[in-house]
Write a structure and sequence with these properties.
Elements lengths: L1 H4 L2 H18 L14 H16 L6 H14 L6 E3 L1 H12 L1 E4 L2 E6 L2 E7 L4 H5 L6 E5 L2 E2 L7 H8 L6 E8 L4 E8 L1 E4 L3 E6 L4 E6 L6 H14 L4 E5 L8 H9 L7 E7 L4 E5 L10 E6 L6 H11 L4 E4 L7 E7 L5 E10 L16 H4 L1 H8 L15 E3 L5 E3 L8 E2 L9 H8 L2 H13 L8 H7 L4 H15 L9 H16 L2 H9 L3 H11 L7
Parallel strand pairs: 11-12, 12-15, 15-16, 16-21
Antiparallel strand pairs: 1-18, 2-9, 3-4, 4-5, 5-6, 5-7, 7-8, 10-11, 13-14, 13-18, 17-18, 19-20
Helix pairs in contact: 8-9, 9-10, 14-17, 16-17, 17-18
Length: 535
Amino acid sequence: MATKNKYIPLLIGTAIAVGVFIGGKLNFTDTSDRLFTTNSKKDKLNRLIDYIDYEYVDEVNTDSIVDVTVNGILDNLDPHSTYIPKEDLQRVTENMKGDFVGIGINFYPFKDTIAVIKPTAGGPSERAGIMRGDRILMADGDTLFGKTITNDLITQKLKGDKGTKVTLTVFRKSENKIFDVDVWREDIPIKSVVASYMLTDNLGFIKMNRFAESSFNEFKEALDDLKAQGASKLVLDLRDNPGGFLGIAERIADEFLEKGKLILFTRDKNGREEHTYATKRGDFEQGELYVLINENSASASEVIAGALQDNDKGIIVGRRSYGKGLVQREMALGDGSAIRLTVSRYYTPTGRSIQRPYTNGNNRAYYNDYFKRLRTGELVDEDNIKVEDSLKFTTPKGKVVYGGGGIIPDIFVPVDRNFDNETINFLRRRGHFGRFVFETLDEERDLFAAYSKYDFINNYNVSDDMVLQFQDYVNDKEGTNFSFAAYYNQLRRLIKASLGRQLFDDDSFEEILNKDDAMVQEVILLSTEYPNFKQ
């Protein structure tokens, strides 16, 4: 008996070791016949990383190797399956959530200080008395000025937990004084509805720049406000809107479609389909509707345009949209990073896929499609839009629509080469208009104090001298000696719009630009001179 007992600890230890080995191989979604098999593909990757970790001659950051590996795998799938490193995930999540915790200021690093462009309307900084043009020198005693201060450090000091306080030391140039002010951090919205106002007595305008978690509520609030002002017709501007959450786009489309109308359906790799139908909750089912799209309107924007077009609701105005008909789902990778993996395709109510062709992977030609459209003349002449007869579909009222690469509008509006050209786009991308306007206001803010918002929009004119100052400003910043004489009218328009945004709000920016916007003016013409127009 004693002899048997002495083997018991050995047997228990062996059993535990076997259990640990089995546990390491066990996938709780596997069936029992796979319990003792290994995944050679996973093992191969794991073994390679281990070899590099332990045997490679030099020190290597294997985290970076893993990132490269993940990106390499996704690059061989489709153009929209992407990797989000952990250092970017919080920013991406905040953007899609529609808010972040902070103090609510839009700032500009200027001469080694944080200059407040404007506080968020109704936000904690505005309530605490922070004003446009103020400089934030310190936060809780930590210096926030000097050549070594970075945007990351500024963000780190100003963001924090909701409900916490930060004491700011502020310099107000207009009063030449330094003072302390306490600001309590709270949720700060990241706006999706960037403009909402009345174009005419009965035509409202809403511009959306993405579809985040908060976007439907923003849209609904804007729609209700416009209806209260007398809007029986609506322009929904989805130009340059890259998309976002599919469910949010479905809810917005539901506002325009009668109960039971198909909004879209999705299909996964196994052929499973999910159909989404409009409910009875729509608040603009009878209203006249115009949707603006262009070559940068993608994904969820195309869901709305396609759902409306296929249900013969409203008029789609603009140029052929981007052509993204794939649906992604975000999946955590366990180390703070994530992937957005394509899990299905979506189809408009007539059954068309608007995903433009791609070969496997993130190929250059796919992302250079804009330049192909520019080269073929599609952006200036609708006859140059190539369609496939095999991808022809018909709406319930007999309108012919096409799949295979974006939504083709009902009314084509060519690109405005006077405004949408590489020179102007370069100046916008570089942020020169906003920075020039801030520095101008910093010296001459009192000159604009007497203007009300609508007096400014309707009566203020940018002088030739200001345009020349802008030209000198750009040349100084870029180290060039260009003349922008051929673009003076466009420069006046954008300088005035940027002034309106910093003096008043984003609505002012859009309202000033839309006075000369070809698509908006086309819609006004359709809704007034041709009120019974039917495509």
